[in-house]
Specification:
Elements (H helix, E strand, L loop, with lengths): L1 E2 L5 E5 L7 H16 L4 E5 L3 E6 L2 E6 L2 E3 L5 E5 L10 H10 L3 E3 L2 H8 L1 H8 L9 E2 L7 H7 L7 E5 L8 E4 L2 H10 L6 E5 L7 E8 L2 E9 L14 E4 L4 H14 L3 E8 L5 E7 L11 E6 L10 E6 L5 H14 L6
Parallel strand pairs: 1-6, 2-3, 2-7, 7-8
Antiparallel strand pairs: 4-5, 5-6, 9-12, 10-11, 10-12, 13-14, 13-16, 14-15, 16-17, 18-19
Helix pairs in contact: 1-8, 3-4, 5-6
């Protein structure tokens, strides 16, 4: 079977998160908006795609169907902590090489896969980062107990591929750190980070789309723990953010090359911030504030930068998804023709 009519937009995800609530909500929003705008739309999972190189040219097959016309835009949502370069990123690279516009691009996703990789990208750009150590290999955690002592105790210990606040610890002293080395799983390296006491149990999630801040949420722990993630029982509330905080989040987004992202900021007593983490999977918009913002959709072409009006209300993903699609139409990234 051969398909020569290309859906204008693909939603590409991973089977491991296909049935998650945010995933289903995003999919419904995309379908509804594409129907409203009379745009061809197709939702796929990674393992439905077969990559080909025939007669020296890149090609695609999907469920046995030869694809001869390709989408203009591919909205990507993959489980960042488990992204594999040899599988997931290979698919995304293939689509990008074929001329598809990916949101987010493969390199941007890779920049957020590993928390230490994120800091490596941000280092040297004047971005305020907590002092952080890590290591290569899987057997060096015990060695780091002495190496990281200069960070002082208590210190933060995180799995570099952790997510949703899991595999994050506050080590009280060297004995506690030694105990952790016997309890944790060593499938990925850990990082050791200076503890920002002022921000214990709270941070600010900043949603950045196309280089503009479109929403901010203060997240607070409800049980005294260091992590403020809502998935661990924390609460989130819409909040205002200083211009300094907004510009910092935008700077981080630009350095990492992300179209849609969530930047987590740790707060200091003097009103300044440290960057904590960057998240490439924030299309669900649950941390978006109730406000209307003008944003610009970055397309890779300096000639296409038209304002998009983004209405955000509540914590639903519907407005953010619908507005991003509207912006694609207005800016010419996706056309109906």
């Amino acid at each position: 079977m051969c398909s020569s009519i290309a859906p204008k937009l693909w939603f590409l995800t991973d089977r491991r998160i296909r049935e998650d609530y945010p995933q289903q909500e995003i999919l419904r929003a995309l379908k509804a908006k594409c129907c409203e705008e009379d745009l061809d739309f197709r939702a796929l999972v990674m393992d439905e795609v077969v990559l080909t190189i025939e007669q020296g040219n890149l090609g695609l097959r999907v469920n046995g169907e030869l694809i001869t016309a390709y989408p203009q835009v591919v909205v990507v949502r993959v489980p960042t902590p488990w992204v594999q370069s040899d599988s997931d990123i290979t698919v995304l690279r293939h689509l990008e090489k074929m001329g598809c516009r990916l949101m987010n691009r493969p390199q941007a996703i890779l920049n957020c896969v590993n928390k230490f990789w994120t800091f490596q990208e941000l280092a040297g750009h004047g971005v305020p980062l907590p002092d952080t150590f890590s290591y290569g290999g899987h057997e060096n955690f015990a060695k780091m107990i002495d190496e990281a002592e200069v960070l002082e105790f208590p210190m933060v210990v995180k799995n570099t591929r952790g997510h949703r606040g899991k595999a994050v610890f506050l080590a009280r002293d060297k004995h506690h750190l030694a105990d952790l080395s016997h309890l944790i799983r060593h499938e990925a390296p850990y990082l050791f980070q200076k503890y920002v006491q002022e921000s214990h149990g709270k941070d600010v999630r900043v949603i950045v789309v196309g280089g503009r801040v479109v929403g901010t949420m203060l997240r607070c722990s409800t049980d005294g723990r260091m992590q403020s993630n809502c998935s661990l029982g924390g609460i989130g509330m819409m909040c205002s953010l200083s211009e300094q905080g907004k510009q910092l989040a935008i700077q981080v987004s630009n350095i990492l090359g992300m179209d849609v992202c969530g930047i987590d900021l740790l707060m200091k007593d003097d009103g300044s911030f440290y960057v904590c983490e960057a998240n490439a999977n924030d299309l669900d918009g649950r941390s978006a504030a109730s406000e209307t913002e003008a944003i610009y959709c970055r397309t890779g072409s300096s000639s296409i930068k038209k304002p998009i009006i983004l209405s955000l209300y509540g914590f639903s993903c519907l407005p953010i998804v619908r507005s991003v699609l509207s912006g694609m139409l207005q800016s010419g990234i996706v056309s109906r023709d």
